[in-house]
Specification:
The complex is a heterodimer of chains A (156) and B (763). With 156 residues, chain A is of the alpha+beta class. In chain A, 34% of the residues lie in helices and 13% in strands. The chains are: A alpha+beta (156), B alpha+beta (763).
């Protein structure tokens, strides 16, 4: 069975094991190591990508469920040299410490802003991605800042 | 199935060639191993020797064409910010604006020692442990920057035939009094050929700092937020197979049998190999246990292969063990008077005569506090990528001890240490886990058996079940008071799983090392003081967990001081200040010494109280708690304000005041204090590793519960202005955070938490 999908705008055909979680396809077969492995049971969110625009934990998403879908990873979040508002805000607010969870945090935050361009504190507290280094307070500030940046730009 | 040795359709790898040339330059030439790691590095072509400008000046500075300043970062970056703070020291004395600086990670390189016989680390101490990176680098790296600047000015002076004293520097230019300028880039080649002076160079006065003390963002943040920052787990060696290991779930339970037929039939699986660990009772020198590794084309196949293994494990000598028994043994040991036969106390300190003070006291207060085993749970699970071939090894792993790791690989692979090429990627958290070489050992042993490069990945279950845990302990605190309520005697006994257990490096250490601090206040301020450890044996391997003995002990001391204050009608801040006494430097021989300055701890305590409105009543329903501690040379105090409603805790305010000496990067220090505080809160709320039938009961984040965003308060960090030499901020945010929280809970509810984690105790 060949799985066809779109990955960061490019078409993919994969004829290996379709039970393979998208995470391991990305890291081992597509050489896209920006999406991280943290737990394997969707409990931490380090593996968060966008599937048809929705934040999705790729460690529990088999390729068979990706047939015909559009996948975006952290590597596809920026448009060329133009960083996404969350990426700019994350740098401004100096969010990362070890940084390992941050790709997942950014993808979750970007999906949130897509749904809710001006999130409240409560909206933000709904994010459940884990951060072992405790950057949560700066993540909160960065999401508010990203909303401002996106509004200033008129788009993202 | 795609061939992992060939680039796939969507190949985004930067092939960065890294090798150890004879010069050990920052980025030189082409490695025969074709190693790909994007450890914060941009891809470079083979170094040209015919550039008209640019070059290396000292081992930490390279000027690239276009006057681009590149500074080498020597430390293991585990999230504590050394990839930023250490280059800041060089940049300051090089006298370039930080905006002109790019940072590149340095590998671990050995060069001949000054005696010509031994080997030394070219870049100095690169390890991350004990929060020493900034204090170790403070003089050395500023000197490196000063030396580079001296060479550049000297080369300009020679070109212009003037004295170097007349020349100034600004924005990476050397400037003549008449206004002529030469860029650092133009001068680099000649500067590098000049012999630097032997004597130490003068460095800037603090009032002239432009970089040190300014808020600087993480140097490779852009790489992190675009997914390009490379961690150990992202490493790739062409042709590497992926390995996942099944390890004995029983402490010291050996491998009895393995049937790998079904595993070998899983598509993609290439081999199954046994890796031996220490036998029961043997020291843990390398890896923790026997294991069976499945080696495959990709991670998913390796995981499926592991699931298909049929393995029998010995149950090992600890199979009957449980937390109840351990707690019983701990309390029984503490119940035994130190002078009774069978008493197990090993004294760390005995000042005056506590027994006599207790005997003649008007009042004696006794309490016990229990702290659990903790797992490190670094966000990036342990992993190691390695190739051993032709008497050489290439190793890429997130680690905290480069020299130790290189030695280990050399021993296991049976090759000279100079032939170990060790890369230092960014590490997804350390917290002390990566001071151990067990996962590197496993990877080398697997690679040597399959004769291919191997990337070994641990799953989260592997990580939580096979850690070197923060020890469990029960602290027995006793205060003797006279009729005026003054403290006349203090005793701190702790029953804890011994740090010496199966650790050959600790044979000569007294039993109390790592679980008892003989100098922790009120030692040295109370005349009749004693502290002692009652070592317990248990199956878990002990390790260092962020702020080791301080995180372990401050909970007991700072909770007990609070209880004594409450019992005697003293204000908790006033009692601490009276115990600390007059401002003076007390001797402190443990790590972080040689002195403990009571005045500096009193200051942060007073500041936290002031900022947190300690002297005004808390709003109705809320309570405030305060705690302070001296950790590795730094002084920290926490104040927290909480409420508990229907069993639910809300943390309304967290104030953290810290004195780390000269603040090198306040933005980074704030991050560390915020992170350390939240780490302490996380541990206090719900974290514990428990054991039943000789097995760890926790498996993943569903049952080892870390703090999440919704429960994480903001942390107000205040950094004391100081001009003494800096100490590292990585760990000192933790120890006083846990007791500040439980002290606040006691103030808000009257309920005293004496056992961590808090868990359901508020319900």
């Amino acid at each position: 069975m060949t799985v066809h999908f779109e990955l960061n705008g490019a078409p993919v055909a994969f004829d290996g094991d379709a039970t393979m979680p998208l995470l391991w396809y990305l890291r081992d077969h597509a050489s896209l190591t920006g999406t991280k492995f943290g737990c394997g049971i969707a409990a931490c969110g380090a593996c968060t990508v966008h599937v048809d625009g929705a934040a999705t934990r790729s460690c529990v998403t088999p390729l068979s469920r990706i047939e015909g879908r559009r996948v975006k990873t952290i590597e596809g979040l920026a448009r060329g040299e133009s960083l996404h508002a969350v990426q700019r805000a994350w740098i401004e607010e100096d969010v990362p410490q070890c940084g390992y969870c941050q790709a997942g945090q950014l993808m979750a935050a970007a999906a949130l802003l897509e749904r809710t361009p001006v999130p409240t504190d409560d909206d933000i507290l709904g994010l459940t991605n884990l951060c072992r280094c405790g950057t949560y307070p700066r993540i909160r500030r960065a999401i508010h800042r990203a909303a401002e940046i996106a509004a200033e730009r008129g788009t993202r | 199935m795609s061939d992992p040795t060939k680039p796939s359709n969507v190949d985004r790898r930067d092939f960065v060639r890294v090798s150890l040339s004879a010069l050990g330059g920052l980025w030189v030439g082409v490695s025969p191993y074709g190693v790909s790691t994007r450890a914060g590095v941009r891809s470079t072509s083979a170094r040209s020797t015919s550039t008209t400008d640019g070059g290396e000046i000292t081992i930490f500075v390279r000027i690239d064409p276009g006057n681009r300043i590149v500074i080498g970062a020597r430390g293991c970056e585990i999230g504590q910010g050394v990839r930023t703070s250490l280059p800041m020291l060089v940049a300051e004395e090089l006298d370039v604006p930080w905006t002109m600086v790019s940072v590149e990670q340095l590998p671990f390189v050995l060069v001949p020692g000054r005696d010509g016989k031994s080997l030394r680390s070219k870049y100095g101490d690169q390890g991350a442990g004990g929060s020493t990176s900034v204090s170790d680098g403070w003089e050395e790296l500023r000197q490196a920057g000063a030396q580079a600047r001296w060479l550049l000015r000297e080369s300009a002076a020679r070109r212009w035939s003037v004295s170097a004293d007349t020349l100034t520097t600004r924005d990476a230019f050397v400037i003549h009094t008449d206004g002529r300028r030469l860029s650092y880039g133009e001068l680099a080649r000649e500067a590098a050929a000049i012999t630097p002076p032997n004597a130490a160079l003068p460095v800037k006065a603090a009032s002239d700092f432009r970089i040190i003390g300014s808020r600087v963002r993480v140097a490779d943040a852009a790489a992190i937020v675009t997914g390009r920052a490379a961690y150990g787990i992202d490493a790739h060696i062409p042709g590497a197979l992926l390995a996942v290991m099944a390890r004995s779930p029983y402490f010291e339970g050996a491998l009895r049998s393995v049937d790998d037929r079904a595993a070998r039939r899983v598509p993609g699986v290439r081999d199954v190999v046994v890796v031996r660990g220490p036998k029961a009772g043997e020291n843990i020198v390398h890896n923790l246990s026997d294991g069976v590794a499945v080696v495959a084309d990709d991670t998913w196949s390796a995981m499926k292969g592991r699931e298909a293994l049929v393995i029998e494990w010995e149950r090992g000598p600890w199979a009957g063990d449980s937390m109840e028994q351990l707690a019983q043994r701990a309390n029984a040991a503490l119940d035994t008077a130190p002078t009774a036969t069978g008493a197990s106390a090993v004294f760390a300190r005995r000042d005056g005569d506590f027994s006599r003070a207790r005997g003649s006291a008007a009042r004696v207060i006794e309490r016990r506090y229990a702290v659990p085993f903790l797992a490190h749970a670094t966000m990036e699970p342990p992993n190691c990528t390695v190739e051993v071939r032709d008497g050489r090894a290439v190793v890429i792993a997130s680690i905290q001890s480069p020299r130790y790791t290189a030695d280990l690989v050399s021993q296991i692979a049976g090759i000279p240490i100079q032939n170990v090429e060790l890369h230092l990627p960014r590490s997804g958290g350390g917290f002390g886990r990566r001071l151990k070489g067990d996962y590197v050992t496993e990877a080398v042993k697997i690679a040597m058996q399959v004769k291919r490069p191997v990337k070994l990945i641990w799953t989260r279950e592997d990580d939580l079940q096979h850690d070197f845990y923060r020890p469990f302990g029960v602290h027995a605190m006793t205060a003797a008071l006279d009729s005026s309520g003054a403290v006349t005697g203090w005793s701190h006994h702790v029953a804890a799983t011994s740090r010496k257990f199966r650790d050959p490096g600790r044979v000569g250490d007294p039993a109390w090392v790592g679980v008892c601090d003989p100098h922790a206040y009120p030692a040295g301020t109370v005349a009749n003081y004693e502290s002692a450890v009652h070592p317990l044996e248990f199956g878990l391997a002990p390790g260092w967990w962020r702020g080791p003995l301080h995180t372990f002990g401050a909970f007991a001391t700072e909770s007990f001081i609070d209880e004594v204050a409450r019992e005697t009608g003293h204000d908790a801040v006033a009692l601490r200040l009276s115990l600390l006494g007059a401002n003076r430097a007390l001797p402190y021989s443990d790590h972080g010494g040689p002195h403990f300055d009571t005045g500096r701890l009193s200051h942060v305590l007073r500041e936290a109280a002031r900022i947190g409105n300690w002297d005004t009543p808390a709003p109705s329903g809320r309570g405030r708690g305060i705690a302070c501690h001296f950790t590795f040379g730094g002084y920290t105090a926490h104040l927290m304000e909480v409420s508990v409603r229907d069993g639910r805790l809300t943390i309304h305010r967290v104030v953290c005041v810290t004195d780390v000496g000269t603040p090198v990067n306040p933005f980074g220090i704030e991050a560390q204090m915020m992170g350390g505080t939240l780490d302490g809160i996380s541990a206090a709320l719900r974290q514990e590793i428990t054991v039943k039938d000789g097995r760890v009961q926790q498996h993943n984040f569903n049952d080892y519960r870390l703090l999440r965003m919704a429960d994480a308060p903001d942390v107000e960090v205040h950094i004391v202005a100081s001009t003494v030499a800096p100490v590292g901020a990585g760990e000192m945010g933790v120890p006083s955070a846990l007791p500040a929280l439980t002290n606040a809970i006691a103030a808000a509810t009257g309920k005293r938490i004496r056992r961590l984690p808090i868990g359901d105790q508020l319900a």
